[in-house]
Model the fold of this input.
Amino acid sequence: MRRHRLTVVLSQAQGKHPGKRALEESVVAALIMEPGLDVSVIPFLYDLGPDHTGRMFLESVKGDMVVLSWLFPRAAFWILDRDGIRGKHGESLIKPAADDDDDTPETPEASKGIGSVNVPDRHIYCLDLRERNNHEPYVEEIRRIAAESKARAEAKTQAAAASKPQVVDLGMAFLKPTNGHANGQAAPAATELKFSQEELLKTPGRRWYPVIDYSRCTNCMECIDFCLFGVYGLDGESRLLVENQDNCKKGCPACSRVCPEQAIMFPDYKTPAIAGAPVGAVGSLKIDLTRLFGGDTKDAVSQAVAERDRELVADGRDAVGTTVGLAKRQSDKAETPKDDLDNLMDALDAEF
Ligand code: SF4
Ligand code: SF4
Done:
């Protein structure tokens, strides 16, 4: 029987930051000494286009996978999903360092989004390399995940064996071809395809596009109405789709501010709430990180409108202000009396 192996992929940071490179190298050096792991290195995940070898490699992995990157795990998971590299969400025990002292029990929101489609029966774990500054916690966590993955695979094998119809042995040996292999041995796993390390590591150009968290997206279509650059569309099942991702205006995160579910992420943006930080895990304080980290006091919708107008004008078009693509709920928002959370944020703004 083939021995269980876990694929671990490290996605490098953009640029050549020496501190980040040093951590990447020490994580990889430690992981390749671990039994049962297939370790590979690819460039920055968000930048990989469909023709990049790193992307093809990721597509070839069929079993459980761990992806280490300099991205929020939510962003990394949904970038992969966007690229058709899907799986069930694997829960990591590495939490943001700031949460370690927080003994408030986390109560993740029940998912109300439309979810992904065609999700295979395997798990993808995304770990954020910004969480710890040495390799040990990552190696320890990957050991734990490898054991979890192996236990799941064994349980599956046992369940499959238990449900197999009994065969009466008539004393004749037949070698049944499996996956086209006449000797009855399993076909090579997809991860055995060869990718040269040089090709894998080819630096891709930088990209900028929205990434949708379908565990949150309710298909309300506010982003389609708001974006005037043809980025969004619908798939064959009338689900929201980032259709022309490279039409998106570099550096502009406007539509993420109007999404009522915080389902739109720009993983490369400086504000954590927009880049894919956890949402709503601890009470409501994490909900409006935009104002805590964004350094501005404008409400999100006015800011989105200003950003969209700036891009329209840069394209030689007319600014439209609030006259186009704002749902009634959004345009009313500015006049809504401030609630307790707004007042709390105002107080925090004043302190910073
Ligand atoms: S605005 Fe947000 S919730 Fe609505 S369709 Fe777009 S991504 Fe989904
Ligand atoms: S950031 Fe701007 S251009 Fe890009 S998808 Fe959103 S609204 Fe469209």
The pocket of iron/sulfur cluster (ligand 2) is lined by residues 210, 226-227, 229, 231, 248-249, 252-255, 308 (CB under 6 Å). The chain has two domains: 6-152+187-199, 211-351. The chain has twelve helices and nine strands.
